[in-house]
Amino acid sequence: MGPPSSFVSKLKVQLKLSISRLRMVQQKDTAIAKQQRRQMAHLLELGKEESARIRVENIIRSDITTELMEILELYCELLLARIGLLEPKECDPGLEEPIKSIIYAAPRIDVKELQQARQLLVEKYGKEFALDAVENRDGKVAERVSKKLQVQPPEQELVTLYLKEIARAYAIDWPKGQSRQERGVDNDASDNDDDDDDDDDDEPSDGQAIKDLEKPLTTEELSKATPPRDLGPRSPVSIAPPKSSTDNVSPRVKLSGPPELKPSTKMGGLKKETTSTQAQSDPKGGKEAQERNNSKSVVGGKIPDADELARRFAALKR
């Protein structure tokens, strides 16, 4: 396959530029149309209906132009996808409609890149082909393109529909009282649905009557009732009830304080070993320590006898 011709390369560039420009113009027109709709809503709120009806025609024309640009953008993308079919001198039958539609609509749209693409197509296929497209002699121009380019005022029904949609979008009561009536109809319909639901609830499907409500309890019955255990503030002391597998009558009491520390058997054994070691190394010290231990054990224990007291006095005299 040989290199592409200069016509194909130039047309390809112009088609890409036309697509990007058409998208930009559509975004711009959409933003302007939003501002114009806000202005129409303000006019309807002020009661200037005649002024709103005249100015809304600009919004309608802007919407039609935006739709036309979308169609031309699709045609440009189609020609760009089938750019290889544009090299022969004769126009391909499958591309005749998009090419003639672009030639027909480009002069009526303020897009310079699309007009340059149109000029390349006219030079490629000749003046006769271009005249057929401009005058639409053979009807090859797309009908939706030709209709959107017709210059005629919009119908009053279309104008009224536009104003109603604008008023609904901005929550404006136009025409006066119509929105209130619509709200009233909606509320009535919802009320009827609620009434139907209530009727269905009053009449059970199985045909049985609804049971009477239980009678309230008397004062005597309430006094006999046992109050719940979790009622009132919770005490810091928790009592663990006896388990079902034991005969523990008095349950254990757990305080919220720290647990009591008790010396283990290992610590007691170490203490005894230390005492015996000290006794072996120092006999006097061991005897004195033993006597201190014995005296400590006597305090609070049994009273010593006479022999024990005589022995202690003799030890003191020495």
Structure description:
This protein is an all-alpha fold and 318 residues long. It is built from twelve helices and two strands. The protein has helices at 6-46, 49-81, 96-105, 112-125, 127-135, 143-148, 156-169, 178-202, 219-224, 265-281, 283-298, 306-317; strands at residues 238-240, 252-254. The longest helix has 41 residues, at 6-46. It starts with 5 loop residues before the first helix and ends with a helix.
Core attributes:
mainly alpha, 12 helices
SSE blueprint:
Elements: H1 6-46, H2 49-81, H3 96-105, H4 112-125, H5 127-135, H6 143-148, H7 156-169, H8 178-202, H9 219-224, E1 238-240, E2 252-254, H10 265-281, H11 283-298, H12 306-317
Antiparallel strand pairs: 1-2
Helix pairs in contact: 1-2, 1-4, 2-3, 2-7, 3-5, 4-5, 10-11
Spatially, the strands of the biggest sheet line up as: 1-2
Shape: elongated
Low-confidence stretches: 203-211, 296-300
Total E-strand runs: 2
Q: How much strand content do the residues show?
A: under 5%
Helix content: 55-70%
Biggest sheet details: 2 strands, antiparallel
